[in-house]
Automatic annotation (TrEMBL), chain A:
All residue ranges annotated as the Transketolase-like pyrimidine-binding domain in the record: 4-179
SMART domains per the UniProt record, alphabetical: Transket_pyr (SM00861)
Cofactor: thiamine diphosphate
Protein name, entry field: Pyruvate dehydrogenase complex E1 component subunit beta
Organism of origin: Leptospira bandrabouensis
Keywords: Oxidoreductase, Pyruvate, Thiamine pyrophosphate
Keyword Oxidoreductase in record: yes
InterPro entries, per database record: THDP-binding (IPR029061), Transketo_C/PFOR_II (IPR009014), Transketolase-like_Pyr-bd (IPR005475), Transketolase_C (IPR033248)
Record-linked NCBIfam families: PRK09212.1, PRK11892.1
Chloroplast is among the record's keywords: no
TrEMBL record, chain B:
Entry keyword Zinc-finger: no
Cofactor(s) this protein cannot do without: thiamine diphosphate
GO terms of molecular function: pyruvate dehydrogenase (acetyl-transferring) activity
Record's keyword terms, sorted: Oxidoreductase, Pyruvate, Thiamine pyrophosphate
EC number: 1.2.4.1
SUPFAM superfamilies xref list: Thiamin diphosphate-binding fold (THDP-binding)
Start and end residues of each Dehydrogenase E1 component domain: 20-315
Organism annotation: Leptospira bandrabouensis
Superkingdom of origin organism: Bacteria
Protein's name in the database: Pyruvate dehydrogenase E1 component subunit alpha
Reactions mediated catalytically: N(6)-[(R)-lipoyl]-L-lysyl-[protein] + pyruvate + H(+) = N(6)-[(R)-S(8)-acetyldihydrolipoyl]-L-lysyl-[protein] + CO2
Length: 324, 328
């Protein structure tokens, strides 16, 4: 078992897949000569050359469209958005073109494309660079949405995303790039739509994904000392969604909290809360709660940013109230 | 008016074929308009009537390995590519026998085998898709060329700029064909374009350009041919502006009151079908022969209409199919 950072795990996944399949290429701003704005593509230009690791001008809508067009004729593009904040200028291509191409053509054009890059909030980057957009993309049928929280998951899920014949929104956590974890030496994949119990417990179910897993784990450790046993479900992908994993856990604990980095209104946590009350209502001892980012754009001020983001204290407080 | 009388039997038969295709498009769309007015076709229906020489002339410059990316006004381009009018009409009727199995409708004709890469409904969004298809040809070292149709309205959206810039810096084998029919829905070009001649925007991308009138089908073909060959040689993209006119409104729901009757009449005098017919007659083809051809095409369209009308709707089980592709 090797210890890799989250970014190294992503780099290894892309490199291995590109070595195997010559129809895969990586495209985006600064992915080549600069070695990646967040260094996820470090060394890949040297290995694969400019024909397969392709720097673009600042034109997200344009190169997302290039990716979609090329996927229509059999290439397997990996399109990197420097951050998901910039994907908003490409959202037309992602939703109106990529997500619908197979459907509106009556099954003629599968769309084997991965859109990936840094997402999430924090680091005092201000309102335009601190946003979690997985709920936006998870809203759209035709897309798959993947949000890994650990280096091990990042590697296995990215390989599955690259091999998938559907457009995948692969949202990496900006603050996790440097985080370290064990990654098996042997090649492996993790199927999209398979969540994982990251911590076993009996009193409450914490449903989460991506960076918010950290807040959940921290809160669980605090509560353990108080005799509260928390089970953590890491969804890993939001589309497809491992619904049964959530229900099985709720049946055991009878309580659930969703912890996410995004905004509360129409957020993905609302969908999970709905699903739990619909499909596991009889097992609930308490309404499903959510811990999210506050319903405001992100402030630059350090104290306000801290207040705005979800954290372990808020998660722990919510759980204590639910157990009273 | 007629300056290009076909001089030999080869150019006569070539023009005859172009004429046949243009009449096929005209009659297809007239039938579609009729079906729309009696409620057999839903949604939007944007007709190509008046612009036929652009699609027919441009696509004649291609080989089967080349790709076509079209707009929401895609019927003419699909027929010019040689697609069978039956599944096209069935698509308009929302039938399971449609070219996109009824999931697409008027704006979304697709035929993978014919390299007909779709009608696309977001104005200008498809320009970078076309660049992407051309990117793939270059990546795979194939010498296919992609042509991309769009209206002058699309020339004002960011996707146009980004698509052309990327195509130019990477010398992609793509020909951008702006069908300037002078109105983006109801907005005339003088209210929308800071510089009226779209083709001069090519200078901004160090790209080859051309500007032609779109009423003479062989001229369109000849000019597009030059651009296609340039692209095939690896010398990069071209922006061609073809001036044309739609005789109907933007869509079936538009009475086009924003333009004068005189303007419409003036353009109708330059009807590309009429022009091709006159040229054929001057080239020695008898009126009766052309009338007979028109009649045969009408019969073909009637059959397509009948086919569309009698085809079954898609099975309800299709609703969830195709949202995701089958696994690899």
């Amino acid at each position: 078992m090797a210890i890799l950072t989250y970014r190294e795990a992503l780099n290894r996944a892309m490199t291995e897949e590109m070595e195997k399949d010559p129809s895969i290429y990586l495209m985006g701003e600064e992915v080549g000569h600069y070695q990646g704005a967040y260094k996820v593509s470090q060394g890949m230009l040297d290995k694969f050359g400019e024909e397969r690791v392709i720097d673009t001008p600042i034109s997200e809508n344009g190169f997302a469209g290039i990716g979609v067009g090329s996927a229509m004729v059999g290439l397997r593009p990996i399109i990197e958005f420097m951050t998901w904040n910039f994907s908003l200028v490409a959202i037309d291509q992602i939703i109106n073109s990529a997500a619908k191409m197979n459907y509106m053509s009556g099954g003629q054009f599968p769309m084997p494309i991965v859109f990936r890059g840094a997402g999430g909030a924090g680091g005092r980057l201000g309102a335009q660079h601190s946003q979690a957009f997985e709920s936006w993309y998870a809203h759209c049928p035709g897309l798959k949405v993947v949000c890994p929280a650990t280096p091990k998951d990042a590697y296995g899920l990215l390989k599955s995303s690259i091999r998938d014949n559907n457009p995948t929104i692969f949202i990496e956590s900006e603050v996790l790039y440097g985080s370290k974890g064990e990654v098996p030496e042997q090649e492996y994949t993790i199927p999209l739509g398979l969540g994982e119990i990251k911590r076993k417990g009996t009193d409450i179910t914490l449903v989460t994904w991506s960076r918010a897993l950290g807040f959940a784990e921290e809160a669980a450790a605090i509560l353990e000392k108080e005799g509260i046993s928390v089970e953590i479900v890491d969804l890993r992908s939001l589309r497809p969604l491992d619904e049964n994993l959530i229900y099985e856990s709720v049946k055991k604990t009878n309580r659930a909290v969703v912890v996410e980095e995004g905004w509360p209104v129409a957020g993905f946590g609302a969908q999970i809360a709905y699903l739990i009350q619909k499909n596991a209502f009889a097992y609930l001892d308490h309404p499903v709660e959510r811990v999210t980012q506050m319903d405001v754009p992100m402030s630059y001020a350090a104290n306000l940013e801290r207040m705005s983001l979800p954290n372990a204290t808020r998660v722990a407080d919510t759980i204590r109230e639910m157990l009273q | 008016m007629v300056s290009s009388i076909p001089k030999d039997s080869q150019s006569v038969s070539e023009l005859k074929e172009f004429y046949r295709q243009m009449v096929l498009i005209r009659k297809f769309e007239e039938a579609a308009a009729k079906a729309y007015s009696v409620g057999k076709i839903g949604g939007f229906l944007h007709l190509y009537i008046g612009q036929e020489a652009v699609g027919v002339g441009s696509i004649a410059a291609l080989t089967p390995k080349d790709y076509i990316v079209s707009t929401y006004r895609d019927h003419g381009h699909a027929l010019a590519r040689g697609l069978n009018p039956k599944p096209l009409m069935a698509e308009l009727f929302g039938k399971g026998t449609g070219i996109s199995k009824g999931n697409g409708g008027s704006m979304h004709f697709f035929d993978r085998n014919a390299h007909f890469m779709g009608g696309h409904g977001i104005v200008g969004g498809h320009i970078s898709l076309a660049a992407g298809i051309a990117f793939a040809s270059k990546f795979k070292k194939e010498d296919s060329v992609t042509i991309c149709f769009f209206g002058e309205g699309a020339a004002n959206i960011g996707s146009f700029h980004e698509g052309l810039n990327l195509a130019a810096i990477w010398k992609l084998p793509v020909v951008f064909i702006c069908e300037n029919n002078h109105y983006a829905m109801g907005t005339p070009e003088y209210r929308a374009l800071a510089v009226k001649d779209v083709s001069v925007r090519a200078y901004a991308y160090d790209m080859a350009r051309d500007h032609i009138e779109g009423d003479e089908v062989r001229k369109v073909r000849d000019h597009v041919q030059v651009a296609v060959e340039r692209a095939r040689r690896g010398e990069g993209p071209t922006l061609i502006e073809v001036s044309t006119y739609r005789f109907r409104g933007h869509s079936m729901s538009d009475p086009a009151k924003y333009r004068t009757k005189e303007e419409l009449e003036a353009y109708k005098k330059k009807d590309p079908l009429m022009r091709a017919r006159q040229e054929l007659e001057l080239g020695g083809i008898k009126t009766e022969e052309l009338d007979k051809m028109d009649l045969e095409i009408q019969n073909q369209i009637d059959e397509a209409y009948q086919f569309a009308e009698t085809s079954p709707e898609p099975p309800l089980s299709q609703l969830h199919k195709y949202v995701y592709a089958e696994d690899k």
